[in-house]
């Protein structure tokens, strides 16, 4: 191994290292292509579950995840999984949608059903608050189907299932 102060490194390496912050380098080193693919599949399952989300007794709405929200959730899931023994494969994801003071359970998804979960993530998505007047009718009686957009803000809580560590809550 050479020391970081060694003069034998190339100029291209030095320019590359200057353009990257330490957190970026950590993520790059911990990048797992298998987790990337699994995360994409997991987000597809999340989107399908949101498409069938019951928000009231007889009401269903198709909840839409904006691209920006998908990217933020993807980044956060990968970040939270990188310190786990099985990576994202060991995740058990509880999906919830919050509107007002109510929080509705949408479903539970095992990232890889063949793996015993090592950590649990609770992903709490929020309805876009600007849509509240438009969706108040959803909670009245009678059939309805309306696509609703989710806010880009969300919360994710991580609980290790093999450790007594405290609950980790990330607000994005």
From TrEMBL:
GO MF annotations, alphabetized: 14-3-3 protein binding
Cellular component, GO, one term: mitochondrion
Keyword Ribosomal protein: no
Annotated keywords: Apoptosis, Cytoplasm, Mitochondrion
Statement: the UniProt record of this protein carries the keyword Membrane: no
InterPro entries from the UniProt entry: RTP801-like, RTP801-like_C_sf
Pfam family, one: RTP801_C
Top-rank taxon, per record: Eukaryota
Compartments (UniProt record): Cytoplasm; Mitochondrion
An example Gene Ontology biological process: response to hypoxia
Signal peptide: none
Protein family per UniProt: Belongs to the DDIT4 family.
Protein name: DNA damage-inducible transcript 4 protein
Record organism: Rhadina sibilatrix
Gene: Ddit4
